[in-house]
């Protein structure tokens, strides 16, 4: 980003994808803040690097993969998510983090009905759909319909539990380990885990 503070309307000099209205507004706001001396471009670059590389779904995936291969860690994780996550050197989840486990009998779905509370050190910035009023309202009122719209079919015999995140408690779904992954390493397992699976809108496909 440090070479692009002039901001063309495309992603990179060679890109032909027009920037979205939100991207253009963000860049305009950044330029105004820099011009007024309220923020330095180096500080913006450092923040973006932190959000892109040091927090995000890859961190949540590490937690999930460790739970899949280490029963003792899984037990600690389900008992005290915040403390167990710290064991992996992942620090900074605001509020407490509670882990809810998907099983053949129970499927969990996470929402924040009031705003967009989200375990960002584990999942990165929340996606637009998570912050939308439609998702926040419908995930509680008709969770199975919402899941179907994400391509996730949950059988009538499976209980769907909806967890409402708040400033005090953030939730992370521990997905079921996919079939056919018995020979995979912990790193290989982590690569299978998606952000949506950790929110509960997706079920991981067999390997």
Could you please say which CATH topology of the largest domain applies here? Nitrile Hydratase, Chain A
The span between the termini is 36 Å
What is the typical, i.e. mean, pLDDT?
84
CATH class of the largest domain: Alpha Beta
* Shape assignment: globular
Question: Which stretches are low in confidence, meaning pLDDT under 50 for 5 or more residues running?
Answer: 1-15
**Second-tier CATH architecture of the largest domain:** Alpha-Beta Complex
Q: SSE string, helix = H, strand = E?
A: HHHHHEEHHHHEEHH
| Radius of gyration over all CA atoms, rounded | 19 Å
Strand content: 5-15%
Helix and strand layout, with pairings?
Layout: H1 21-35, H2 41-54, H3 57-69, H4 71-79, H5 81-87, E1 96-101, E2 106-111, H6 120-123, H7 128-131, H8 133-141, H9 143-149, E3 159-164, E4 169-174, H10 186-190, H11 195-199
Parallel strand pairs: 1-4, 2-3
Key attributes of the depicted protein:
two-stranded parallel sheet; single chain; Nitrile Hydratase, Chain A; 44% helix; disordered N terminus; 207 residues; globular; 2 domains; alpha/beta
How would you explain this protein's 3D organization?
There is one protein chain. The protein has 207 residues and is an alpha/beta fold. It has 2 domains: 21-53; 56-199, Nitrile Hydratase, Chain A. It has 11 helices and 4 strands, in the order αααααββααααββαα. It has helices spanning 21-35, 41-54, 57-69, 71-79, 81-87, 120-123, 128-131, 133-141, 143-149, 186-190, 195-199, and strands spanning 96-101, 106-111, 159-164, 169-174. The protein has a two-stranded parallel sheet with strand order 1-4. Helix 3 crosses helix 4. It starts with 20 loop residues before the first helix and ends in an 8-residue tail after the last helix.
